[in-house]
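Input record (one chain):
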Amino acid sequence: MATLNYIEIPSYATRLRSELSNHDLRPAPKVVTSLPRPEHSPVRKSVAPAPPMSPSKPGSNLSSMLLTSALQLPANMPTTPRVESGKKGALRLLSTRDPLSMSITTTNFRRFVAKSGPVFWLQDRIEEIIMWKRGWKYTVVWMAAYAFLCYFPRLIFLIPHVVILGILLATHPAIRKGEPLDASIPKMTQPMPPTQPSEGSADWLANLQAIQNLMGSVSDAHDFAVKFVPYLTYSSPYTGTILSLVLASLLLMIPVVNMLPMRTTCLVLGLVPFLITHPFTQNYLLPTLQSGFHPILNALRFRALRVVDNDNLEDKHWHTELREVELWENERWAPGTSGGPEENAKSEGTWSKTNLKPGERRSWTRGRDGWSGVSDDGSGEVSSNLTFSLGAGWFFVETEDWRPDLEGSWVAPGSADEDGWVYTNDSWLDPHPYPLEEWRSAGAMTRRRRWTRRIYYNPSGSE
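The corresponding structure, as predicted from the sequence alone:
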């Protein structure tokens, strides 16, 4: 046993500090750890957004400026990295066709921004159909067309002809002028429409914005997928179990697949996304289900995160005592608009640590009372590091970071929202898992979130 516990201290109790000086000959060591990384933490200094560029301003050098500021290439970079890195017999693929060069990168990036408009135009049209943004009639027509193809799948081979025919009819001079459609070919050749926007124009900047958002989406998808890589590359002890389950499910699915009606299955799988993205489902059905199963979902998420953390523990962690240290994040709501166009702006307000009043609890506190700040003298703002005085022989678990209390267990199970926030009134009282409308009407409300991190006991005194 590392320590002896004679009494059980209630979770809601607050320890009283003695005014007498500490004469311990062996003071507790100072352990430095990083702060939790919430989405809107003041530790992450948010860069002020640059003002939107005007299409009237020249943008001839914008591509070079973007690449120069985003890429930090070494002066002696190799022109063929895969070949010069020692990989013999490397094939000449599309990704290695041209040598690595800043000038070629700048030229191709400028060309890509100007010519990628049709790709993002198609992306917007698909999003309008799936998300019901053009009205129910527009989406229902496409759903009917998909259902027709499911029951007559051979018509898929006619899609190229239908697409070309649609383009020819859309660009027909008679249809554009509103005249009766003549089967004869127009006698006068029409001028070719512009195929790409000029650099710095509104359409060119719109393409650049779409590329920016696409890069962010790809990065988010990568960050989500990389969590599963250890379980698929034998970097986790559960990989063998996953392999056995996949093989067993494969053998079970072989006879089931033969019994499934292919046309009906494709019809159902294709129409389900439309039903999920319907405004009624998004605005009424899903929120109702989430409110009913909210405590259960939060508990399952917390258990899943704990299972992942336990899987990453080392043997020295399992063979000793584990405890938790806690930290509290505090924010206050300030009335205001949600931004955007004036006609669409909503009086939603903003949650921020900068809205905290002078003299009240600081943005990060250590105690449940909300007043035990992270600075001993009670002044200054929290830096990116946080110093804890752990007892002799106690260390932070190296394989995990701070975790939010998604259940709100410090109040009652199910008292927090999906991100772990517990909402209170202007006086930090009357906790709820959601902000009350009367608080919003009064223009003042607060919220708290509990963060925990595990520590382990090592009697040898070394990590």
